[in-house]
Amino acid sequence: MSRITFQKRQKEMKRQEKQRMKAERRAQKKLAKINGEKEPEIAEIAENIDNLENLDNVGTADNVAVPDKLEP
Known about the structure:
Layout: H1 2-35, H2 40-54
């Protein structure tokens, strides 16, 4: 019996922690909206897109050294 009780308690604690994290995330988004800032996730996505655009030329024929013979 005590094992089941312990598992239920752990599950409930995990659920409460998830609820707290969600509430914190919502509060951060609301604060960012009030301050006129981009949402953290959107800002991160935009930064990653900029980084990917810088990598457009990587792997083109001009940048890659291809050996004449492939050795086994």
